[in-house]
Amino acid sequence: QKEVEQNSGPLSVPEGAIASLNCTYSDRGSQSFFWYRQYSGKSPELIMSIYSNGDKEDGRFTAQLNKASQYVSLLIRDSQPSDSATYLCAVPSWGKLQFGAGTQVVVTP
Amino acid sequence: EAGVTQFPSHSVIEKGQTVTLRCDPISGHDNLYWYRRVMGKEIKFLLHFVKESKQDESGMPNNRFLAERTGGTYSTLKVQPAELEDSGVYFCASSQDRLLLGTDTQYFGPGTRLTVL
Description:
heterodimer, A: mainly beta, six-stranded mixed sheet, five-stranded antiparallel sheet, 11 strands, 0% helix, globular, B: mainly beta
């Protein structure tokens, strides 16, 4: 079993709709969770971090964490073509980040 | 403030040759990480420096890989001799404080795309 799992996609989302991305992790002791966005050929960029159960909102992004279910999600509201990218779920473990394979999101006009 | 920079952006070499990748972290960041993404796989950790010391090199694939960070500033990652399976994108990241409680952010460089023929 992989430490961090994501659906690879691609996830096709009409412009203006909500994109929902899921991530599960195996280490029950994990305390923090990150979502990175990576455009093709570019570096991963941190867009959200979440540490407590529940929801955290930042602009059009909402991260949701459920530690009991070992599940973290990212919602992108009012999706724009500029949101087309690969979204990486990352969980720190003793100083290093463990990444999921990433979910490719394609926002269609 | 300048971000993490990596050089070269692309490298194409033949099997058996040597390649050296360089990473310049954000100024003042003590922590420097190397990661690698091979085709179709997730980004995987290679090693972690705190200043000039190797804190964790558990992700290094084998002894063909040698990382250094002399003086605690920039870092180099040498692959000698390169094999076909070494192809991938090598990312460097830096952070100011150790990622203990998840309060620190790792900033990534643009990566070096290595192709071994």
